[in-house]
Automatic annotation (TrEMBL), chain A:
Listed name of the protein: Response regulator transcription factor
SMART domains: HTH_LUXR (SM00421), REC (SM00448)
Keywords, sorted A to Z: DNA-binding, Phosphoprotein, Transcription, Transcription regulation
Pfam families attached to this UniProt entry: GerE, Response_reg
SUPFAM superfamilies given in the database record: C-terminal effector domain of the bipartite response regulators (SSF46894), CheY-like (SSF52172)
PROSITE patterns named in the record: HTH_LUXR_1, HTH_LUXR_2, RESPONSE_REGULATORY
Claim: DNA-binding is one of the keywords in the record: yes
Positions of modified residues (4-aspartylphosphate): 59
Keyword Phosphoprotein: yes
Domain (HTH luxR-type): residue spans on this chain: 150-215
Matching Gene3D superfamilies: 3.40.50.2300
Length: 219, 317
């Protein structure tokens, strides 16, 4: 029997080496444990039926059934299951579609070594996990809309937050922003989180609603 | 009437008139020539030549129209044809020429279709392989390096972390390559998502304001049609960024009667109609591929409007 204090994870990726790598990274953490693996979306659903899992980590591009389709099925099959996408696609369309399908986080494979563990924990806390490109896209789009007078920020940002906002919108990474402003990367990430919070983009549903309203995805 | 008889007839008319004049008009030609007679004769000759020239020009007009079309015809704008006159050799010639244009246009359309399809298929294959094989293996390497770095002693750890960063950069590069080769969003999420992604990316890179207007009730389209619409939008936006000096672009996709209409309208400095570059010719080739009409014209206010009207096959009942 698996340890009840651990987060039980289902891992789906069609590439066995990636699966192995991810598994080793996750199993290394004391609070995470991979209890099932699947090579495609359909198998992931079978595995979710057969095993008790808390979190599903799904690749998007998989044979038989894509990660997005599987996420949709899993969300209706097991509403309590948290879903995290782990993918190569650096594109906000996939991100928003993933949110719409019921995923609560989106991790790029190129930063999986840094972000995956944090994303798993965020998902279990019911917080959305956004990859940096998504934050930039959201903030840019938001600023555009403010400029067009469609919406106005209802909370005033601090001067520091405004600085960060501007740099994020210009496409700088957290690391670059930290270097420009002489602050730590952690602080930058906190500012980013506060920004999203103040812009009214707190959780998965907010983000999805926002994306539909802004025409970033279809309703 | 054949061309021979037509010209022969015209000449016969002119010569006959001249002969008739000589026979019945009160004119004589003295043997040592008299000046007035010479003037009258030369005048008569000039009249004859002018009449002959005029009649011949009229008689050969269809050939001239044919030559003009032959020098200007553009296979990328199909449908240019000559009216066929009543009969005879000229009519036959024009009919044959029209038929040849039909054949050439058809041949051109199918061969460029083959080339474009082959190109897209090849790109898709390379993108897929990069994504599925190279990208995945590099992800596995990245994760293995991370694990090794976590367990390695400090001096080795730094090196492993450096290797991690290099792998990450290469992985980003592979991802960029895949994206450039093939609009994966189009295959996975459909045309609207692909165009949304294209336009927001364009807005991010150029700083232009992009307005999207997509009809919600678009009819289902063939994958080739979607790809052509996407590529034309992509090329048009590239042109806007490169040449238009615009502030705002509107990209719209509307359903019309029996067709889907893609329009890209900018407020830049418009096009100088002189000649069309490789980009626009490429768009025309793609439009031909799906039997769509491409229209590039000045926009109503300022700037340029590119409009692609793609027919939607009616559903069989």
């Amino acid at each position: 029997m698996s340890d009840p204090t651990k987060i039980r994870i289902l891992l789906a990726d069609d590439h066995a080496l990636v699966r192995r790598g991810v598994r080793l990274i996750l199993d290394q953490e004391p609070d995470l444990e991979v209890v099932a693996e699947a090579g495609d979306g359909a198998e992931a659903i079978e595995m979710a039926r057969a095993h008790d899992v808390d979190l599903a980590v799904l690749d998007i591009a998989m044979p038989r059934m894509t990660g997005l389709q599987a996420a949709r099925e899993l969300a209706s099959l097991k509403p309590d299951l948290r879903i995290l996408m782990l993918t190569m696609h650096d594109n906000e369309q996939y991100f928003f579609q993933a949110l719409k399908a019921g995923a609560s986080g989106y991790v790029l494979k190129s930063v999986a070594d840094q972000d995956l563990v944090a994303a798993c924990r965020a998902a279990m806390r019911d917080e959305p996990f956004l990859y940096p490109g998504a934050v930039t896209a959201l903030i840019r789009n938001y600023l555009d809309r403010v400029r067009q007078g469609e919406e106005t920020p209802d909370q005033i940002l601090t001067p520091r937050e405004e600085e960060v906002l501007k740099l994020v919108a210009e496409g700088h990474s957290s690391k670059e922003i930290a270097e420009i402003l002489f602050i730590s990367v952690k602080t930058v990430q906190r500012h980013r989180a506060n920004l999203l919070h103040k812009l009214g983009l707190r959780d998965r549903l907010d983000l999805t609603r926002y994306a539909i309203r802004a025409g970033l995805i279809e309703p | 009437m054949s061309l021979f008889w037509r010209i022969f007839g015209l000449n016969a008319v002119v010569l006959g008139t001249a002969t008739a004049l000589l026979l019945w008009a009160p004119v004589t030609v003295s043997v040592p020539v008299v000046l007035t007679e010479a003037i009258i004769l030369v005048g008569g000759l000039v009249v004859m030549l002018v009449a002959n020239a005029a009649l011949l020009r009229w008689g050969l007009a269809p050939l001239e129209r044919l030559t003009k079309l032959m020098t200007t015809v553009d296979l990328l704008r199909p449908g240019q044809r000559l009216p066929v006159p009543a009969g005879g050799e000229v009519a036959e010639l024009i009919r044959t020429f029209n038929a040849m244009l039909d054949r050439l246009e058809h041949e051109r359309a199918t061969s460029s279709a083959r080339a474009l399809l082959a190109q897209e298929a090849e790109r898709r294959r390379i993108a897929q392989e990069l994504h599925d094989e190279v990208g995945q293996s590099m992800t596995a390497i990245l994760l293995a390096l991370k694990r090794a770095a976590d367990e390695a002693p400090p001096p080795l750890r730094d090196e492993l972390q450096q290797a991690q960063e290099i792998t990450r950069d290469s992985l980003d590069e592979v991802r960029r390559l895949v994206r450039r080769l093939r609009p994966g969003v189009l295959d996975d999420l459909g045309l609207i998502s692909a165009l949304t992604s294209l336009t927001s990316e364009f807005a991010t890179h150029t700083g232009l304001r992009v307005v999207r207007r997509f009809d919600a009730d678009l009819p289902p389209l063939e994958p080739e049609t979607e790809l052509v619409l996407y590529r034309v939008a992509q090329e048009s936006l590239t042109n806007v960024a490169r040449h238009a000096d615009a502030k705002r672009v509107e990209v719209s996709l509307r359903r019309t009667d029996g067709a889907v209409e893609l329009a890209i309208v900018d407020d830049g400095r418009g096009i100088r109609a002189a000649r069309e570059g490789a980009g626009i010719r490429g768009m025309r080739e793609r439009a031909l591929l799906i039997g769509a009409a491409l229209d590039i014209a000045p926009a109503p206010a300022a700037g340029t409007r590119v409009r692609l009207t793609a027919p939607v096959p009616r559903k069989q009942p």
